[in-house]
Amino acid sequence: MTNSVFVKPGMSPREIVHNVRNLGAIALTSTGMRDAGQSDYKNRLRIRDLSSLSPHYNEMGLFSSECHGGARWHVGIMNRRESPFDEIALLREKMPNVLLQTLVRETNLWGYRPYPKNIIEHVISRVDIDVWRCFSFLNDVRNMRTVAEVVMKRGRLFQPAIAFTQADWTTNDYFLKLVREIVDLCGGTDEIILCVKDMAGVGSPRRMRSLFDAIKQDFPDLVLQYHRHATDGLALPALLAAAQAGAGIIDVEEDSLTRFYGQAPLLSVASFLEESGINVHLNVKAADGAVQKVREWIRHYEWAESPFKGFDHGVLMHRMPGGAFPSSFEQAQKGGFLHLMPAILKMMSLYNQIVRYFDVTPGSQVTWVTCSGIVNHYDKERGMAGVNHVIDLLTRFVEEKKQDFDAMPPEDQNELLHLFRGAPGDFKNLIIGNYGKLPMGWPADWVYTSCFGEEGREKIAQRHEESPLDAIPDEDLKRLRHELTEQLDRTPNEEEFILYLMHPKDALDLIRFREKYGDAPLVLPTDVWKSGLQKSGDKVEFEYRGVPYSIERVSIGSEHDGVIHAVMKVNNQIRVFKIETPRARKTEIRMAKGMTDIGAPINGTVWRIGNPDRGPVRAGDIVHKGEEIANLEAMKMENAIFAPYDAQITEITVRLNQMVKQEQLLFVLEEVKEQD
């Protein structure tokens, strides 16, 4: 429609909201730089390629570019070796007309656990983002309070998001109550934009028309934005319904990025809305330029696409959000249980009716780890016959008996009472209230017995509904900064400290990688970054800080005593590089066997030995029954390990950041008897 820029960085939230209200057309947010890559490419799209879209974005007339946050933050430091701060700086330079938008998970920010209030305040006050989209997977508006306060105090646009799913309990009245709470929290409708966030893509056209109309009836001045994944195949008619009912902004992505689990295609949506009589604010020529630019480099990411291809209308049942689809399939592939995915999705559809919340991070991880763990347990015990058995058991319980526990035969009751016995720590935290108030109340009492065994009744009594903002004590930031200083053997800068606050282990890995390899992730072309120079004579050319570089492979020697010599031609000068590679060694992995041995409950990474209250534990320390002695990270979830009795630690057999296998020995304990 137009190439005019109607909002840009530096505007106040009030100005931005005013301009959207008076635009006279639907505005668009492009998710091409974040959610497109998360939903279909496991967050592997590199900023070097994505930044090539910037000149087109700068002229496109977008409302914003969602280019930051979510799981992109974590995977960037963990796999792409990119700092989110480098991304912001690069995009600020290349597209000064565009509002940069992030996605934060209320108290979890860009992590997977609730952070204390002082960490949230510290981080948000120092990250240079224009639009802060914030959601709660429990729709607990209280959890957004600190994010809202800091963002609005900074004069940046706060965009609260209500998590949407289509179910009998997610009525218009339910959502309108949330909207009223949000408007009260933010002091009115003049400085916020409200997002309806349909992460799984399950909202039918009729349902979205009804919901958006109901919100506009109650809050006619509230600017609404619709974020919807395309998984069920009905994205375009649902977007049209939302626009007709009052949505002012819609999320889209470049047509050439669209696969199955991200957002709908930009040019297709614009054309469909225009043909339906709705004006769209878009410079089509610039938008087409972005679409064509993607086609120049997207072939380098075929390896990263989800192995589960095709639209999936069954998402209405299992509700796996678009952002979690490819990463879950990747984890299943690596874990050797990709063949179990149909059963896991069916398990999720049944589980969602037993414990009700919104399947978006971290809730999607809780659901995924819990359900995949149950299916894998039955597969290991009894093969596919066991998997089919547990699916049949839950189907009878949920669909036939309507979750009437007493109506199940005694043998089925007994099995249900052990169903969640191996559930991850985050599931346990969820059902006792450590994430906040569940949207439809606590699960049935049998779930607590199933999860905690004899301690089930005690855990029911310990349930609480405080927001993590009120329940988690502040961290000692000086201590954490000192801790990082000791790890690096130098004073960290503020950006490094923030990375460390979010993801300590992976931040350290990134910092050390960049100290060794510099800005290589930002300048090397994607094919070279992934595969290197394959044969003699292969060459890569790039510009770094205004200086052209040329690197050519001459020869690679054989390995001798763990050392390889590589001969390269750098700017036509021969250089020889010594590469040290660890020889393959067979190291014995000790497994937990005896009564005094504490083994790993799952495959994972040891990210803490000890607990936050006590600090690290060492051999010789006395620990008490129920005290956390270690924590494993697996599939982005924490899994705490507790002392089974009062004991002295006689041996710790693992180290921090070590990968361990299920049942691998972690501790040897010696029980401490009470003195008479």
TrEMBL record:
This is Oxaloacetate decarboxylase. InterPro entries: Aldolase_TIM, Biotin_BS, Biotin_lipoyl, Carboxylase_cons_dom, PCB-like, PYR_CT, Single_hybrid_motif. One of its GO terms (molecular function) is pyruvate carboxylase activity. It holds the Pfam family HMGL-like. CDD domains: biotinyl_domain. The keyword Lyase applies. It comes from the Bacteria. It comes from Chlorobium limicola (strain DSM 245 / NBRC 103803 / 6330). SUPFAM superfamilies: Aldolase, post-HMGL domain-like, Single hybrid motif.
